[in-house]
Structures are given as C-alpha cells and as structure tokens.
User: Which sequence fits this backbone?
C-alpha cells in the first residue's frame, strides 16, 4: 500500500481525533455574612464555577484550621450551584485555607480571621489547580504524524 493511498485516512484521523476545548479554570466568589448573635459569628458563603460559568457541582471542600494546613477544621461538598458555606471561629485567629477540589480541578482561598471575625479585604485566591496537562486534540495530530513518518521510513528501507 502506498503512502498516497493512506493520506486520506491519516488526514481523516487527524480531523476526527481533535476534541473541543473545555473549561478548566475554577473561579470562586464569596460573600461574608456577619450574624448579629452573641458571638458576632461570620459566615463565609462561597460559590465555585468553571471559567465558562458552569457550577462546580459536588466538589469536595476542606477548610483547614488557622495556620495548620494539615488539620481539617470543617469539610463538605458544594451543592448543585457550586455553593458552600462555613462559619469561622474567632477564638482561633490566623489564616484558614479553604480548598475546593473536584477531579483535578480546584481553588484554594486564604481566609484571614482575627478576634473580630473574617477580614474580607484580605481574603486571597492562593492558587488554581488543574491536573489536565493539555488538550487531547494534539494526540490525533501526533499519532498521524508518527504514522506518516513510520510509513515513509518503512517505504524508504524497503526499496
């Protein structure tokens, strides 16, 4: 079989293997509610979405104790809208971390707390996590190019 006969199959393979891009980045927005109870408790309401606006449903959430990133203070799961809420403990001042993760996608927020409660102006987005190293569309191109090179070398050495 000649290389010329295989070319349409290789081109079709490259076109068929390309995939559509998907949203990978996570964005977390938050609103702080200060309750008017005896403890002046603060509740941090978070909502995590993909960069295309789709909610991060069912994501695991871990809130770590202030200044102790290995001790989980509270945990839970985001709802169907990507929301999760937790109340802070002013008796434990310091920087808590809220880690939201689902299937390799995630976000980490640092939440500073003092005796008065959460300091919303100092909440920071530590990092976004994404274990997807690339789009699978390149796989089709790489396989097709490798096939063409192999066939070309095989033909050359056969002659």
Assistant:
């Amino acid at each position: 079989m000649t290389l010329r006969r295989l070319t349409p199959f290789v081109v079709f393979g490259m076109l068929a293997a390309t995939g559509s891009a998907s949203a990978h980045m996570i964005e977390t927005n938050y609103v702080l509610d200060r309750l008017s109870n005896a403890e002046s408790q603060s509740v941090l309401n978070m909502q995590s979405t993909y960069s295309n606006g789709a909610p991060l449903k069912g994501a695991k959430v871990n809130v770590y104790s202030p200044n102790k990133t290995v001790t989980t203070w509270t945990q839970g799961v985001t709802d169907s809208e990507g929301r999760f809420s937790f109340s802070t403990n002013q008796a434990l001042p310091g920087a808590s971390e809220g880690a939201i993760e689902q299937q390799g996608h995630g976000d980490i927020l640092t939440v500073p707390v003092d005796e008065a409660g959460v300091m919303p102006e100092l909440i920071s987005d530590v990092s976004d996590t994404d274990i997807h190293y690339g789009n699978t569309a390149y796989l089709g191109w790489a396989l097709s190019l490798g096939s063409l090179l192999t066939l070309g070398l095989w033909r050359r050495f056969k002659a």
Remarks:
- Strands lie at 26-34, 42-50, 60-64, 72-77, 83-87, 94-102, 105-114, 117-118, 124-130.
- Residues 131-135 have pLDDT under 50 and may be disordered.
